[in-house]
Amino acid sequence: xxKFCSKPIIICKNQRKSALIILEMGFFQLPDRLGTVFAVxxxxxxxxxxxxxxxxxxxxxxxxxAAPFYKRSRSHFNEAKTxxxxxxxxxxxxxxxxxxxxxxxxxxxxxxxxxxxxxxxxFLRLSGVTVPLVSVLxxxxxxxxxxxxxxxxxxxxxxxxxxxxxxxPPQVAGIAIFAxxxxxxxxxxxxxxxxxxxxxxxxGKSVEGSLACFAATYFCAFxxxxxxxxxxxxxxxxxxxxxxxxxxxxxxxxxxxxxxTVQLAMK
Length: 267
Prior knowledge:
Elements: E1 2-14, E2 19-29, E3 37-48, H1 69-91, H2 96-102, H3 104-126, H4 134-141, H5 153-167, H6 170-194, H7 207-225, H8 228-242, H9 250-265
Antiparallel strand pairs: 1-2, 2-3
Helix pairs in contact: 1-6, 2-3, 2-6, 3-5, 5-6, 5-9, 6-7, 6-8, 6-9, 7-8, 8-9
């Protein structure tokens, strides 16, 4: 337990007597997983209003925090909601192997057309033109770093699936695309919702997210190949690539590296 601050915080204003009721609190930070700051001793004081400036209660922040707790909780909720929407779109790419099995050429053309159409509509959105549905979805699924920028996620996602279909045999391409859809998808969700352990060698990613990526990729690969060795190789590769600080470009690299690894493991 470590004391790190002791300063007065204004709680309320006494309107009749023109005075401020303040609490002078010694703060201690305890090893709580939410980083909660606890006040452990309180001294109540009444001072003249002329001797101290009045600050609105909303402006009071706990020491060591970037924002009040309720604001940080709301921010975390909004980030989690954005991640759920993003990964829901991410999961849709898993339809590609099934579509390709029915009509390969049509699937490839659909991915090309989707990438092109989205790029055009995204340029229109950045120019101030509201595109029905696309502008709404982009707004809901955009992260803070995407504000005012071309959102690359859908482009790299479609490109990764397209390259997997073009470069690998159907079974290998299926495992690579499932690793992209579910391995990377569940990694993002698990990391955002449950991620607590973020060692330096994961470049800011969480252990929980990497484990989710490994488990999801292994399950999908085993369902396709029915081969333990191939599944483990695919899962390790997917978790390793997903941990790299590639931002949206892991959507391209992950299926390519996983596909290459699976193809070598099958020989």
